[in-house]
From TrEMBL:
Cited SUPFAM superfamilies: UDP-Glycosyltransferase/glycogen phosphorylase
A Pfam cross-reference name: UDPGT
Protein name per the record: Glycosyltransferase
UniProt keyword rRNA-binding present: no
EC number, as in UniProt: 2.4.1.-
Region feature Disordered, mapped onto this chain: 442-464
A GO term for molecular function: quercetin 7-O-glucosyltransferase activity
Similarity-based family: Belongs to the UDP-glycosyltransferase family.
Compositionally biased spans, kind Basic and acidic residues: 442-454
Keywords: Glycosyltransferase, Transferase
């Protein structure tokens, strides 16, 4: 049997690169040959982030293609929208050339048997079809956000979208409008369906793009989801009724930690490949070692969120008021207008000097699994939220963008592991919610239960473990 060869094409942000890399490592451990496609811009960033290792290893190669963006457009507030436009319009041609070049293999590379983009990259599915290569898509989020986004089109058709006027954004309309007909989902407010409902423009790019991309996932031969069956049982059952080829293989970090899924070290060398775009502050792990179990508040807003200076100050003073030690991660580009860590109020730095650690980027999964961490204040990006669930850490949730509102809904009201923060950040509420989460026995019990569920799913006989084997088999079948 020929070795399967997947060309993995993540959307060029950490929320997609990370799970795509984790899945690639798992597949490689099972003998799948991987070509991992990054943008030239991101490859330069990986190489510049000291400590990050791009390279490649047996059965894993990296290819870089241009993302088509002008450097001047990378700093703007709408970076993600610009990136989505650029990838959609300009990525297809170089990707087509790459897949065409590799299609028949040669020089130690087996013929390509699958093109595997993440969500938001459906042009790659078209490229695969044009070249006659099978395809599968890896979602950058869970089953519930997919189901919700697939319904944006119906919400448009029945006149809920775009919003009638600007007042709908502030008069409680988004919270009061309840959608109770999405298959497999509990009643959900319009505002929790997606950030892209927040528009009065019928031609809004974000809305159009997300409707198109959510529905285009079904063009793929299979949908791979970084989730586990018991976490999203109802919505997965509803999705599978429409699209039976769904492989749930998460939480990917938990799966990767299982050594019995790996024959890689003894047979084909290490897969410690790292594609982080920022330099990791690994010293924060040593700082965590010095803290009491369950005492630390960990705060991180992911790779794309942008805060105002005022919002950062409210979060900072809220943390100060908890009286707890905290690890606060502030990316260089987190604060609108720049400033990074320097945007923190100087008095706050003095007042909290003995119980804070500030970092610009950290090894998040290791941090969340550290025994010192007792609460995660998060923007509820899918990966961050799932990493927290798999580590058994309850959350304070402050969504900003895309599917993060749906994630918060599930964390707070379905899984019982989170509390909401208002959109307008207030220090008193930040302190109150952090304390409530850290003192709640119920939330801690729920979090521990979901951690066990995640472990069980990743164990032999568990849903994710078995689905991964099924996915490998499907890739082998495509190649034969
Ligand atoms: N991440 C990390 N270190 C950080 C911040 C984030 O390793 O300091 C990783 C995090 O573990 C997750 C990803 O970056 O895997 C962020 O993805 P997510 O879906 O949570 O949010 P996004 O960045 O897409 O908004």
């Amino acid at each position: 049997m020929a070795r399967p060869h997947a060309v993995v094409v993540p959307y060029p942000g950490s929320g997609n690169i990370n799970p795509a890399l984790q899945l690639s490592k798992l597949l490689r451990r099972h003998g799948v040959f991987i070509t991992f496609v990054v943008t030239e811009h991101n490859l330069r960033r990986v190489q510049a982030a000291e400590g990050a290792m791009a390279g490649g290893c047996e059965g894993f190669r990296i290819e870089a293609i241009p993302d088509g963006m002008l450097d001047a457009d990378r700093d703007g507030q709408d970076y993600d929208i610009g990136l989505s436009k650029a990838t959609t319009q300009l990525f297809a041609a170089p990707l087509r050339d790459l897949v065409a070049r590799l299609r028949n293999g040669g020089g130690g590379v087996p013929p390509v048997t699958c093109v595997m983009p993440t969500s938001l990259m459906s042009f790659a599915l078209d490229v695969a079809r044009e070249l006659g290569v099978p395809s599968m898509v890896l979602l950058g989020f869970g089953a519930a956000p997919l189901m919700a986004q697939m319904r944006l089109r119906e919400l448009k058709d029945i006149g809920y979208l775009p919003l009638k006027d600007e007042s709908c954004l502030t008069n409680g309309h988004l919270e009061k409008t309840i959608i109770d007909w999405i298959p497999g989902m509990p009643p959900i407010s319009l505002g929790d369906v997606s950030s892209f409902v927040r528009t009065t423009d019928a031609n809004d790019f974000g809305l159009w793009f997300n409707i198109t991309e959510a529905n285009n996932c079904t063009k793929a031969g299979a949908i791979i989801v970084n989730t586990f069956d018991s976490l999203e049982a109802d919505v997965l059952a509803a999705l599978r009724a429409e699209y039976p080829r769904i492989f749930t293989v998460g939480q990917l970090g938990t799966m990767l930690r299982r050594r019995d899924l790996s024959n890689v070290d003894k047979e084909s060398g290490s897969d410690s490949i790292d594609l982080t775009l920022w330099k990791h502050d690994t010293e924060c792990l040593a700082w965590l070692d010095s803290q009491e179990p369950g005492s630390v508040v960990y705060v991180n807003f992911g790779s794309l969120t942008v805060l105002t200076v005022g919002e950062l100050a409210e979060f900072a003073w809220g943390l100060a008021a908890t009286g707890r030690p905290f690890l606060l991660v502030i990316r260089e580009d987190l604060v609108r207008g720049g400033g990074g860590v320097a945007a923190l109020p100087p008095e706050f730095l003095v007042e909290t000097a003995d119980r804070r650690r500030v970092a610009t980027w950290c090894p998040q999964e290791q941090v969340l699994r550290h025994r010192a961490v007792g609460c995660f204040l998060t923007h509820t990006g899918w990966n961050s939220m799932l990493e927290s669930i798999a580590a058994g850490v309850p959350m304070v949730c402050w969504p900003v963008f895309a599917e993060q509102y749906t994630n918060r809904k599930y964390a707070c009201e379905v899984w019982g592991v989170g509390l909401r923060l208002d959109e307008e950040v207030r220090r008193e509420q930040v302190a109150e919610r952090v304390k409530e989460v850290m003192e709640s026995e119920e939330m801690s019990k729920n979090a521990a239960r979901w951690k066990e569920e995640a472990e069980a799913a990743a164990s032999p006989g568990g849903s994710s473990y078995e689905n991964l084997l099924g996915l490998v088999k499907a890739l082998e079948d495509e190649g034969s």
